[in-house]
């Protein structure tokens, strides 16, 4: 990828139309952009990210509210419309160079920011499907993580002088530059697959669980068989007892029909009265538990209702007073064409307040909600003399029915003792009691049967599940072995590729570091461990050099040399942005970086610098490699950044085409 042009229209401090042209060509691979702190260099970098990736530039997958809020903060506050970033660049696609233009624009509607994106390929506007395909291709061939590699910040580079940080950075950098991330991801997926299937001896655990479930199923089925057998015997005994009862009842009916009918009638009356008494007793219990306490404390309940009414009136009066106070009577009267003096209006307002919101001062005790107040008042309405009278009537009626019930039971008892068929009656009673007992036993065993059937069904499901899991484990065991082989081959291939690439990195880094240092015979070789990415410096006698003996500037040159070596070994053609790169270097080392490193950093290098970093002498050293130069000048009074087509006062003003 090679950047051609960046246009910022009402973005950050870039008010109106602002344009950067890059056009690197051959030896002139450098675009020099100068500016003091706060002049807009950070917005420049952010705009490149935003133009290419939109929400992905901020870590969002889609246009979320948070993303649009960040964009809104980026838009120029003085402008009202026409916000956009336009980035033009060249990409290699199917061995052909293609010219692309991304136009990402925003407009504000009802305080909400809306985004639209247009993409042009060789001046042809892409439709929505083609646009989606392009961004997918861009994300895979030039992802945001790769773009971040292209942006070098001097402050971040100085931190990499720490060995641990540098090793970690180089490991990450090598994965992205040498296309090894795919293998790392594949290996992690295979490891997850294998570990998920063999975790903690899962197969053995499942086999134990399967045997336990099988044994439990066997016991439950034995219990169910016993339960069914018992139910069968109880049912036979119940039917035999029922036959005996019906035969005795038939004989009794045949020989003592009148007496029997009388007994049946008495029994029916007893059952009916007992049912009526049960309903009355339930009503009495409900009254005692629900209403009786409030009848006992009726004065307190009445006082509570009065207090709630007073509080409600008090709140209503305050609300009316506030409404009247805020009422614009003057405007209201004018609308109906009535003109009154302000004094009369004020008097009328006071009179209205007095008439509508008169109230007494009430201490707020309960501060109840409308629902709570309504419930209390509804209860108070129910607590009346009529309710109490109905309760007394229920007690009286229950007492009367109890007396009638006692008389009926006594008559039934007298009937039994006087009848000559007493023996038949006793046989029927015994049979009836036995049937009731047998029915109770059958109900209990039936409940046990249903419970056992549910347990058997549940255990069977668990057994089937475990059995299926074991089957799948047995089924894919062979695939685990193949996966392990693939994992081993991938690791070996990645390790070999990395070792080869790092050999190239060592060669290029050593060559660059030697050219940047002023100590010609200080060292002979840089070595990089392909497992730990630790850096070792060797002197001309192949003895290790203590890196702590390097100055801060030399450590930074070492980091730059290794990063350059990584990029050189990767053979990737990428645009690079170097931001405040020379801050910690002395003039001699700055000269080396400007004349040796920057020209060889890539086919396109954008250098962001302050005037204290690149002075007039260094600027002259860099001139042979500059294709375009700019200075960002921030006007504090207008809060606007102006782009001047020269580097501070060293360069000569140009006209941007």
UniProtKB/TrEMBL annotation:
InterPro entries: DNA_S_DndD (IPR017599), P-loop_NTPase (IPR027417), Rad50/SbcC_AAA (IPR038729)
Name of the featured protein: Rad50/SbcC-type AAA domain-containing protein
Signal sequence interval, chain numbering: none
GO molecular function, one term: ATP hydrolysis activity
One Pfam match: AAA_23
GO term, biological process aspect, one: double-strand break repair
Residue ranges the record marks as coiled coil: 196-290, 421-469
Presence of the UniProt keyword Transcription in the record: no
NCBIfam families, per the entry: DNA_S_dndD (TIGR03185)
Keywords annotated in UniProt: Coiled coil
Ranges of residues in domain Rad50/SbcC-type AAA: 5-225
Coiled coil keyword on record: yes
